[in-house]
Amino acid sequence: MIMLEIAPSGGMIGAIFAVGFFILLAAAAYIAFKALKKTVKMAVRMAIVGVILVIAIVGSISLWYFSSDTTPQLKPPANRKR
């Protein structure tokens, strides 16, 4: 029965990787925000967190876009007459 299950599409796998990538970098931004609590001012902390989140968003969108399902354009068969 396991062999009869439908495998997830490439777009779904890409979306899962994109969400995982975003969550991983969002956690890194949170850790960076908490780690820099006493050493730098709030503006610098927010700038660092903003840069990390922008990288997370752009990376997630690119992973999702490049792994989305695209049907290849098939060429029609040749119509040569002999």
Describe the structure.
This protein has 82 residues and is mainly α. The protein has helices at residues 10-35, 42-66. Helix 1 packs antiparallel against helix 2 (42-66). It starts with 9 loop residues before the first helix and ends in a 16-residue tail after the last helix.
Helix content: 55-70%
Oligomer: single chain
Q: What is the general shape? A: elongated
Structural class: mainly alpha
Order of helices and strands: HH
Please report the distance between the alpha carbons of the first and last residues.
50 Å
Please count the beta strands (DSSP E, at least 2 residues each). Answer: 0
Low-confidence stretches: none
Rg, rounded, reads 22 Å
Topology:
Elements: H1 10-35, H2 42-66
Helix pairs in contact: 1-2
Summed up, what is this model?
This protein has helices at 10-35, 42-66. It has 82 residues and is mostly helical. The mean pLDDT is 78.
What labels would you give this structure?
mainly alpha, 0% strand, 2 helices, single chain, 82 residues, 62% helix
